[in-house]
Amino acid sequence: MLPRARVTRLVLLGAIGLLLGLLLGILGGGGSILTVPALVYGAGIAPKPAIAMSLAVVGVTSAVGSVWQWRRGKLQSRVALLFGLSAMAGALVGARLAVLLRGDVQLLLLAMVMVAAAVGMLRGSGAPAGAEQRLAAPPRTMLLGTTGVVVGIMTGIVGIGGGFLIVPALTLLAGLPMADAVGTSLVIIAMNSAAGFVGTAGHVAVPWQATAVVIVGAIVGIAAGTRIGGRLSATQLQRGFAVFLLGVAAFVVYANRALLTGGPPDGSRATARVAVSATITA
Question: How far is CA 93 from the centre of its chain?
């Protein structure tokens, strides 16, 4: 029989997965950006294992979501293959670069990405109605591939799927309608995250049981979120999430302020996280 503390921890991880899945289902790929902060500050997992877990969780849930989009006819396979292969190459490079960085540095980089994502969401929420249906010029293959590499590098370093960049790139550079861009982005996120995980897992001890629990919760959440999202105002949801994202980014920066002020990292917090990770893995 599992100890009560460990059961409580696994229930917490399942709840985190459920919440992340709901965000993914309601908001699309951009919702995955909270996975690492939730695992680090919600479950007490050290940054590097949390990034590896995030890649696995986001990859699997996006793959499940892409199957649903494929059944709805909202998946453009050729574009997904071009962008996805480029992103995979970038993710492998990013994962190698991540080995050279401390965990708190990766968290600060993630906070910067979160701010950029929030600003993009706030600007996008004010777009005129019908703007999302306008098609761009014929696909710009070179720019699409380059963007894929950049998104992949970011994924490998900070452990996010990059949906908030992939969807606009697909609409602007590949000329996809928004609905197709969202569906296609899930395949790309799955490919991107898989490559990042392969590049990261060899250098980080992954708590497999904890990862599986979060994935199960996330799959349940994304199924529910996909149904709920269709009944809610996308503009208001996006705006509210962007504001929340700015708050989380500010907290991440505050929690790692020692790095900015030149002081030593908080050893007690780091020790606690390592202990929690060891308990979950055991």
Answer: 17
Please tell me the pTM assigned to this model: 0.80
Q: What share of the chain is helix, strand, coil (3-state, %, to 5)?
A: 80, 0, 20
Radius of gyration, CA atoms only, the chain: 18
Number of domains in the chain: 1
Beta strands in 80-189 (DSSP E): none
Cβ atoms of residues 192 and 89 within 8 Å: no
Q: Which of 90, 40, 45 is nearest to 194 (CA)?
A: 90
CB-neighbour burial class of residue 87 (10 A; exposed 0-12, middle 13-18, buried 19+): buried
Which contiguous run of DSSP H or E holds residue 70?
helix 47-71
Give residue-wise pLDDT tens across range 100-149: 999 999 999 999 988 988 888 788 654 444 444 444 445 678 888 899 99
pLDDT digits (tens, 9 = 90+) for 8-34: 888 999 999 998 888 877 776 666 788
User: Cα 44–47–221 angle (5° rounding)?
Assistant: 65
The structure tokens listed for 47 are 């940054």
Structure-block tokens of residue 242: 């962007």
Assess if residue 3 is contained within a domain: no
> CB under 8 Å to 142, separation ≥6 — which residues?
none
Higher pLDDT, 255 or 164: 255
Closest CA to 96 of 211, 201, 208: 201
Residue 102 CA to chain centroid, in angstroms? Answer: 19
Domain of 130?
8-281
Cβ-based neighbours of 112, under 8 Å, separated by 6 or more: 249
273: in domain:
yes
